[in-house]
Amino acid sequence: MSTDYEYWLEIVDYDLETAEAMYSTGRWLYVGFMCHQVVEKVLKAYWCVTCDDEPPYIHNHKRLAQGCGLWDEMTDEQKDFIETVITFNIEARYPRYKDELFRQLTPANCRNIIDKTKEMQQWTKDKLSNRMKQSK
């Protein structure tokens, strides 16, 4: 089992704090981006504990969740959230997508995204903790 998961979890906490800071300053696009980062990194932390190789250099949450075995354990609501938050990464960097993202990333929706990100983070951390206890 790799201790790299600790690295990922430290960054997860930092990124979640950054999402909250972006929310408090009205930087809606960056709220979405930082929530994307939180989900990606918590999945990579789980990967480090459950897989023999390093997490792949990808940003696709669905593929990460499938690769580390979490996808099949997720509820439909969690899967839907994963599919939504994926769009806040690569597409956010291209001008033609920004207008659509700005329509989606309202203050109320950003608060909801942060809350769901926190839920996903905690759920994954709980799974990680249980997995580590089983391997001892």
Mean pLDDT: 91
Instruction: Count the DSSP helices.
Output: 6
CA distance, first residue to last residue: 11 Å
* Residues in helix, %: over 70%
What proportion of the residues form beta strands (DSSP E)?
A: under 5%
What form results from the Cα inertia axes? globular
Element-level helix/strand string: HHHHHH
Number of strands: 0
Rounded to an integer, what's the Rg over CA atoms? Answer: 15 Å
Task: Decide which structural class fits the backbone.
Answer: mainly alpha
Largest sheet: none
Assembly form of the protein: single chain
Low-confidence stretches: none
What's a concise summary of this model?
With 136 residues, the protein is mainly α. The chain has helices at residues 4-24, 28-50, 61-68, 76-86, 95-104, 107-134.
Structure description:
This protein has helices at 4-24, 28-50, 61-68, 76-86, 95-104, 107-134. It is mainly alpha-helical and 136 residues long. Helix 1 packs antiparallel against helix 2 (28-50), helix 2 (28-50) packs parallel to helix 3 (61-68) and helix 2 (28-50) runs parallel beside helix 6. The longest helix is centred in the C-terminal third of the chain and has 28 residues, at 107-134. The radius of gyration is 15 Å and the shape is globular. The protein starts with a helix and ends with a helix. The mean pLDDT is 91.
